[in-house]
Amino acid sequence: MAELTVAREDAPATKLSEREVVAFLKAHPDFLGRHPDLLEIIELRHKTGSAVSLIEKQVDMLRAKNQRLEDRMQRLVETARDNERRTQSIQRLARTLIRAPSLAAIAAGLARCLREDFGIDEVFVGVVSAQFKRHDIEGIHPIDADGRLARAFENFFRTRLIECGPIAEERARLLFPKAAAPVQSAAVVPLEKEKCLGMLALGSVDPQRFQPRQGKLFLELMADLVAAAIRARI
């Protein structure tokens, strides 16, 4: 570490380490303000060999900091707008489910809202067969405890935790056998987590649409609405 020498008229020169100089400047942040001439004298060397004054460097740093703050503010604004749009879409979904006169209408309205408002390509709604045994309602599927789907999603039914991310082809075919295009990513959400009413699965042809670390608040809200609507009609 380099050392600086400070000489006084009434005392021998004193060597100060860079650490001590840094500590002094931190303890006296107004020092350069009281000695503005130093701002033009002190030079900061770039790797290219050019030099700028300390005040020019400070201006550049402030510009960079302001740009970072502006970028962060823009991201926050975009996130707020996105959340507002999602909230409005959730409200529309809630109205659709509340007004649906039957289970078939619930499934149809759910698929329409998710496609139009959320860009979801495929939807699967499954209810455990212990509470729902009918096979004649389009869009609502009974899940047998020892069936292929229950075995394929054994870990999901055991933990009852939301699963998001890429989905294996075999599992995708079980959930979305009539999909127009191969489903590449999916979100699988429990219906009535504590009572295990069933599952809601959302599929997308975009492999990046659902990610393991994505936020799950809106998925939980959506599942709560779907579960409440189904529970009221079975």
Automatic annotation (TrEMBL):
The UniProt record lists the keyword Coiled coil: yes
Pfam families with a match to the protein in the record: DUF484
Key words of the record: Coiled coil
Coiled coil: 52-86
SUPFAM superfamilies in the record: GAF domain-like (SSF55781)
Lineage: superkingdom: Bacteria
Protein name: DUF484 family protein
Organism: Sinimarinibacterium thermocellulolyticum
Source lineage: Bacteria, Pseudomonadati, Pseudomonadota, Gammaproteobacteria, Nevskiales
